[in-house]
Structure formats: structure tokens, C-alpha cells
Amino acid sequence: MKKILIILLISLALLSLIACKKPTEKEYNVDKSSCTSCGECIAVCPSDAIEYNLEGKAVIDQSKCTSCGDCIAVCPEGAIY
Amino acid sequence: MKKNLLSIFIIFTAVYSSASFWNQSRFSLYNSHDIEVYGFENNFLSEFMLNRLNIQVQMNSLVTEEDYDDYNSNITNELRTLSTYQLAENSKFILGYNVDYYDYDKTQDNFIINGIDFPIKPLVKNNLYLYTQNQWQNISLLAGLRGRRSGIDYKFDYQDVINSAEAEYYDEFYKDLALAYNLNSELSLYSTFENKTFYSSNVNFNDPGRNHDYTHYGVGVNYTSKSFLGGKISEDFQYLNKESQQYESYQRHNFINNLRYNYSFNPYLSSYISYFSHFSYDKTDKEYYRLANMLRLQARFNIPSYNYKAFVIAGSRISFENLSRIYFAYLEYPLTNSISLSLEDRYSHNVYNTIISAIEYKLNSNFLFYLENNNTQSFSSFTTFDFKNTFTLGSRMLFR
To answer: Is the whole model's pTM more than 0.90, yes or no?
Structure first.
């Protein structure tokens, strides 16, 4: 039962990669497990769209993000995807 | 001078009150080629722990040698303080307050209206938060309130053009709630809620009516098994509904998948693979969109050494949608109980390559110092340098 559930979820993830359309605008997110809370992305973000959450990890406020990509360029951990 | 006095005060207060005290300071030589800028960087970080009270103070400063142009030379001072108080043990209540203060000589990406230089980035951020974490048998709860006031200090070239009082700050008020129910040791269900209220004192001159309020609702399932095809697997799938005036219709109904699989080949070699997938459904277009995804691969090899603490880690993080790729390798090798070497290389495709080498000397259980060289070559137009080398003499202290 558990293996079936896992296989279903993996299939769904792979299907999303193949079947979904690419949007015209990019959206950036932070991998919290890779974020070291160094604050580099917060310092460079021109629209003040990145803040720490309750766990002390960087999160991108999509309501302010302009998808400029500056944060990706400075993140030393490659945690922004 | 004031900073040094503050540092000394914190150190003496901590030591004499017999509380736990952790401090790191470093002094670096900053060198950037092509633009020939030299400067000094100092980072001071201390953490003061007394019973349930925890205070962190961090000060960073960067001063470059000469003012060549707007982007290649600057003076930066940052001060960050964080105070938390834990009210209870089992049901954790945290009351926190922190201030971020940025003193940028040249604030990035300013825009100018009627001759007035308006920095977009806030220079002072005040954060106040209260949250609680509780665990009752199979149920866990996290609830929190956060508030932030971001202040902007404008530079006036012509004082009579605009009334500055109308445009000094903006406030953001957050409400967070997360509830999880463990069906058994492997399977759990959870739900999340996050709401933000935004109030601006007319900061957004380009669009004064801009509203940054949002509300997010999420439900998800998490499965973790320590015995799956000889390894450990963790799978998390979440549906997240996002509502805001700022969101496009394709950003509202989100599906976030996080899969991770660990496998140990033998006591020396272990590895994991993880895959994030974020896609959404657009009700207007009746289309599925893939927003972001990332593949992570990592392997760790424990090098046989006298104390079994030497290891090498290598891996990569690849984002297919946003075309970012980073490859990294890290070696840590203790030569003796006191001396340890480390070497790291991080290569981000078309963005930068960083090589960090360090030697660390542990004087005793309370004190160590280290030499570190950080060399970064930039290939991207986003960064303000082509080449940067930072040489650091640092120390770390821990008093209990």
C-alpha cells in the first residue's frame, strides 16, 4: 500500500515535468533545507521581497518578487530554484 | 569605536554572568580585480544565552579603499539583533524581537522622482513576533503572529518638492498556523495557513494602489520510511491555495512535491537524491503550469583517518526551469586533534566559481582560530565584480 502511494506520487511529480506548460514569467523559490540563512539574497533583492520566516530561513514573497534573478546570482548554496 | 566598546561590553557581561556565550569575529582583506578595489571586512557575531533568554548580536562592515564609481566602492554597515524568550518548556512559547539596520553608502537600484533619490530598500526593519509550538500525542501545532515595520530614509536633493512624511515606512503583519496529525510513525497529514496584511505609507510611487496582502491555505501529506528499497525515503506532497491581488491566475492553485531518497552503500559511502517539483493549475486558461523544480544529488565518502572524522562531500543542485546549475565538492581533513584542513569548490554555471581553503587550529575546547581564503570568479552581469578574493583571520570563542 505504502509503495503504491510512493510510486503514485513519484509518477505525479514526473508527469508534472512532462505534461505541464511553462509560464511566461519565472517564479523563484527557496529550498529551505539548503538555505544557510546567510542573508545575501535579502541584501541584493531590489524589491525587498525576501525575508526570514519563523524557522530563520529565507522565503520569497511572490507578491513583491519581480523575477529579476539577482538572488540566484548571489546565493552561495544554490538554494534558490 | 562605539562598536568595539559594545563588543567588549557584551563579552564581559557574558563571561561574568556565567552564561553560555559564543562569539565569532573575522577580519578580511577584500580584493576585487579589474576594478582594483581593496577594502576591509569585519564580521562580529555573538550569542548570549542565559536560562530562557537568548540574545544574538551581529555586526558586519565593509569599507573599500577608494570611491571609483557607484557600483564598485561602498561603505556598508549592518547591525542585526535578535532576542527571544522561551516562556514554557513542553509547550514552547517564543517572544522575539529583532532589528535589522543597514547603513548603505550607496543603496542599490534607487529611482529618482523630481530630483529626489528614493532608495527602494528599507534601511531599518523592526520585527516583533510571538509564536507557540505544541505537541499533544499525535497532534502538533505551530501558531504565530509576526509584525514588521520597514523604514526608509530618503535623500532629498530639493527639499520643497515632496512631503517626506507621506512616504516613510511600510508595515507587514503576518498570521501563521500549521497543524499536523501523525497517523502512524511513517505517515502524517498537515494543513497550513498564512496571511499577510500590508500597509504602505505611500511608498510605492510607481503604483500607489499596489496591495501586497495575501492569504495562503495548504494541505499536505508526508511519508517517511527508513526501509524502502534498502534505503530511506521521504515524500511530501502539498496543495497550496494562494490568494492575492498581485498573483497571476496561474499562481493560485499550487502543487508542491518534495521527494528524497537516501542510500548507504557501505559504512564509508552514502548518498541521496532529492527532487522538488512545483506546478500549478490555471483555472482561467484550464492549463497546468510547471513553475519551478530542482534536482539535488549528493554523495558523502568518509575517508579512513586516525579519528574517522575526515570526509568528502560532492554533489549538484540543478534547477531545470530557471536554468541554474551548481556543482560543489567539500573536503574536511583533520590532521591532528588540534589542526584541521578544509577545501571547497562551488561552481555555478555561467554565474560564479568559488574556491574556499581554510586551516583551523583549536587551542582548547573554548577557543579556536582559523585562516581562510575565499576566491570567487564571477561570470555574471548580476554581480558587481569580476574577481574577488577575501583573506580572513578569524576566531571563535565558546564559554559555557
So the answer is: no
